[in-house]
Amino acid sequence: MRTDTLAVILAGGLARRMGGGDKPLRLLGGRPLLDHVVERVAPQVAAVILNANGDPARFAAYALPVVPDGVADFPGPLAGVLAALDWAARHRPDLPWVLSVPGDAPFLPRDLAVGLHRARDAAGVPLACARSAADGQTHPPVGLWPVALREDLRAGLVAGERKIDRWTARHGCAHADWPAEPVDPFFNANAPDDLAEAGRLLLRAGAAPA
């Protein structure tokens, strides 16, 4: 476990492709997607928060802090990351790092935090994001962020920046690779068909990577 890292589960999206509502509360294997994400991420870090807008009571069962975007008009994942950085600075100044993950990715690696820190340390840069080893596809919302860069991120958002990888490239971002077998750990349930596929993966023997 990384005792210097806070995890934020990004659950503030509009879920247009899923027909609206809260994607992380859609059921997978009889349990909300969010259950799967929390189960995988919580053991890796010192604390977990949720980034979500609207009534926080709908997440009450998780007994986690629910932190809304601090930037208006749903500007995307970067706003959720900034909200987490601000929350860490205010409530957990002992945690200088934030690990961000989507709330609709039920197969996240169990060594995600360690792997991202290792990649960042090796490259000597302040940021890291996940990458699929097989095809080199990066997953910018699955990343490691220093709380020290929160004011720079705020300035970027206010100036209209919305692309994660464009902002991270300004500071230096390492990539940590994970295999896509037996299941892609960065699989996102963005639409009903994806949710059905995730259900099939759960039923496949040994689908969830250790």
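That was protein one. Protein two is written in the same sequence-then-structure order:
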Amino acid sequence: MKAILILLFVVLGAGAFIGEKMVQDPGYVLISYDNTTLETSIWVLLLFCFVAFLFTHWAVNLFFKLSLPTKQFGLWRKNRIARTAQKRTYKGLIALSEGQWWQAQRLLSQTAPIAAQPLINYLGAAKAAHEQGHIANTDEFFAKAREVAPEAEVSIGLQEAEVQIDRGNNAQAVVTLKRLHSLAPKHTGILRDLADLQQSQKSWDELISLLPKLRKLQVMSTEQLFAIESNCHAQMLSNLLSKLPVESTANAKVKALTKSWKALPNTLNQNSKLIITYTRALLEAEAPDQAEKFLRAQIKGSWDNNLIDLYGTINSSDTSKQYNLVISWLKNQPENAALLLCAARLAMFNQKWQEAVVHFEHSITLQPSIDAYRSLAQLLESLGEHTKALEASHQAMELTEDHSPKLPLPVLVDTAQTVS
């Protein structure tokens, strides 16, 4: 209230002062333009300017107020389109998650041009089209996704690679994943998919070269990486001979195998799976003496019943020496079923038939196995002991898993009791 009174006194004072000045000296203003002149006092000119300012201010405000409804309508229409796009996109994603492919494709593709995030719509539409087997539409949606979001190439490429795998085009999927890997070298998902594809394509060399990156970025567990690495080298050893020229000599084959074995990482040269693979490759290369020497050294270095089992199948140039060696091992491990089976096989190579029978029977007593029963049955049949051979064959069949259905059988009637 005090402020209003003070303002009122200031206005009255200013008005009195200006009124006095207007009476004392009204001033004179002459405005001339072309043949027209305008004469007035300075106070009238100031009043005119003040009124003109007020009118201009009022006109500008009126103009903006009249145009405001048009802007509000445009904003309302824009918001309405955005809400519609969001609603239809939501319905499309729900349909996609529920496997309603046709509806999902229609909703997502139609809404994509007006959606806030068209990339999501196009990728969803591509998946829906792929699930329906529409190859052309799938590729078209991927292309549109790249147009609206070229910076999302990794995300688009990952889904595209998945589609290529589903189509059975693994070679193209590998190309796609390699390109993505060059764009995102540390993307663990890309590396995992690439490793899986290379395993399925048996690209062992490429997979081995990828292992350091898999290990560095911890894409898989240590156990998984070790299993992959050992399997890769085992497969390469197994396939090495088939890649050599047909005219390769036994000596050339052995040299190639030896070179490959020596190239193994130190963490793998004690792996029993690889030892067995290498030994079998030497046997395939018709080098039983080298296979026997190598395997004997491995067994002495680290005892493994799997190696013992394989040792009994090697028919070297000196099987007598092999047999005597195994017998010496038996003195320390007389109840080792695998070692007894090995001794039985080597006894057969040395034509020590009765000793072989004893070893087979002892091994079976400790640990029955189909191989031991079958080998014993064949040996007994050759020795003329048909009854025992038939019994051994029957025991082998008993160990074989039977998947046949259980059917009713006739009950035998004792005819002698029936007559009495």
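The mean pLDDT is 87. Keep this in mind for the problem set.
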